[in-house]
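Worked example

This section walks through a single chain of length 197. The input is the sequence exactly as stored; nothing has been trimmed or padded.
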Amino acid sequence: MTDLPNEFRAELAAEFGTPKMEVVRVLGSKDTTQKFLFRLRDQNLIESVLIPASPALYGQPSDRRTICVSSQVGCAYGCKFCASGLEGWTRNLDAAEMVQQLIAVEEESGEKIDNVVFMGMGEPLANLKNVLRAIRIINAPWGLGIGARHITVSTSGLAPQIRELANESTQFRLALSLHGATDEVRSQIMPVNRRYP
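Given that input, the structure is written out below as tokens.
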């Protein structure tokens, strides 16, 4: 409503609005991916990555764009290939913070996101309730309207939560990070495998 005084609108936004994430830095890569560093309202930092489909590699505009969304600040699982867990887990992101990553990347890049992958910072299944809320908002016609089959949740393999996902009616995709051909190799790379081989 524009007939409300500016001062009152500012008070409403401060009291009830979701604070916008601050874009701290955007790094581009030769392969045309872009990494976005965001500062949250509590000053913690998270990252999102925008990945254009391969035509962009050949100088043509990309026809699809995928975003890797963070679900936690830090990570408790200590996978050897991932820097997210180097300082441990700090907190779970709420659904709004996950959805805001998409909105902020679209605004900053000027690109429309077609695909969403929950595989940024953190283990999505360790924050399942908020990830599912975010998926519902991202998928809903009143939300961002991205088709469920264009949404993927990537996990290191939290078996109880995978079973819980099987009961979900939304038909998003599940990706299981293996990173090793045997349990022995996988356990060396991903300590969570010792708990859920």
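What to look for: Strands lie at 22-28, 34-39, 45-52, 65-69, 72-74, 89-92, 115-118, 151-155, 173-176.
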